[in-house]
Design goal:
The protein has about 300 residues and is α+β, with helices and mostly antiparallel strands. The chain is about 30% helix and about 35% strand. The protein has helices at about 5-25, 30-55, 55-65, 80-85, 190-210, 210-220, 240-245, and strands at about 65-70, 75, 95-100, 100-105, 110-120, 130-140, 145-155, 170, 225-230, 235, 250-260, 265-275, 285-295, 295-305. Helix 2 (about 30-55) packs antiparallel against helix 3 (about 55-65) and helix 5 (about 190-210) runs antiparallel to helix 6.
């Protein structure tokens, strides 16, 4: 064997050892992961409390990451977009409130998401409800240890659920579970590229074989799988997804734009554009959260909204 080939072989072994060690160092115990998820949920509640007390602009400027985005309706850097507008002289009359009811977190405790109901009220009309739905926020831990929003999206629902809207927070059953079926050398290096490739594979499967088969194959496909669609209540679990999308004939094209992964290699997110192939030619954006389970990356949550009509 040539010295060059020996060097490459040694380098590969060292990289594999480094990645494996990095995953071990970045992992938490299941108890620590659960505690960190509760801290993330508390951060979400503090974010909402600031929105109610001081207004959306002040809250979003504080709790979004420097590179965090929202969709308005296209993806924009939230801090830059809000910072370019003058601050209102007083708190606006439209109040946005929300609270987390479900969430997940990586074993490294550096990436997570929360979701739950949101409500818009007009204080000029005795807190009349003028909008309602479910928010969806992907969070990244910052160098100083704080949690900040990386991606924020959500879906509106046709009618406020009122007292039926849950308040208790529940953790995904994956919390604290190491990824299974992944070889050590597939650790930290190149994770983002592999998740984006998986997103593109979902798009190809959807276009070739149909939307419903793609969801069955590429999602976690269990009772915690959740899909959010505009003007629909959340689709939670296999039965609800099958009932809502089982007869869907429209095909979609998908284009992943960006994403991110946890250092522990168990949780990731992607977002991008979608478009229908029918004559109506609808289009919009999506956000997906992926977990590495059963030997591959699978979607555990997705938000998909159309662009507003002109």
């Amino acid at each position: 064997m040539s010295r060059h080939r020996v060097f490459r072989a040694c380098a590969a072994l060292l990289l594999a050892a480094f990645c494996t060690q990095a995953l071990v160092l970045n992992a938490q115990s299941p108890q620590s992961a659960a505690a960190e998820l509760n801290r993330l949920a508390d951060t979400e509640r503090a974010f909402a409390a600031k929105s109610v007390a001081e207004g959306m602009r002040a809250a979003f400027l504080e709790y979004f990451a420097p590179d965090g985005i929202n969709f308005a309706p296209h993806p924009v850097n939230t801090r830059e977009s809000l910072g370019a507008r003058p601050a209102p002289p007083s708190k606006p009359p439209i109040t946005l409130d929300w609270w987390p009811v479900f969430g997940d977190i990586s074993l490294a405790g550096d990436l997570g998401y929360t979701t739950g109901p949101f409500v818009l009220k007009d204080t000029r009309e005795n807190d009349k409800i003028v909008g309602q739905g479910f928010y969806f926020s992907v969070w990244k831990k910052q160098p100083d240890g704080s949690w900040r929003v990386a991606v924020d999206y959500g879906s509106e629902i046709p009618q406020w659920l009122g007292d039926k809207t849950p308040r208790d927070f529940h953790a995904a059953h994956w919390v604290g579970t190491p990824p299974k079926g992944r070889k050590p050398h597939s650790g930290a290096a190149g994770l983002a590229d592999r998740v984006l490739a998986r997103d593109r594979a979902f798009a190809d499967r959807s276009l070739r074989g149909g939307t419903m088969p793609a969801y069955r194959e590429f999602t976690s496909w269990d009772d915690e799988t959740r899909l959010y669609r505009d003007q629909m209540n959340p689709l939670l679990g296999r039965q609800a997804i099958s009932q809502a999308l089982g007869n869907l004939k429209v095909k979609f094209t998908w284009q992943a734009l960006a994403g991110g992964t946890a250092a522990s290699g168990d949780l990731a997110y992607t977002y991008g554009k979608w478009q229908t192939t029918d004559r109506v030619n609808r289009s919009g954006y999506y956000v997906r959260v992926w977990r590495h389970i059963r030997g591959d990356w699978r979607v555990v949550a997705e938000v998909m909204n159309p662009l507003p009509t002109q």
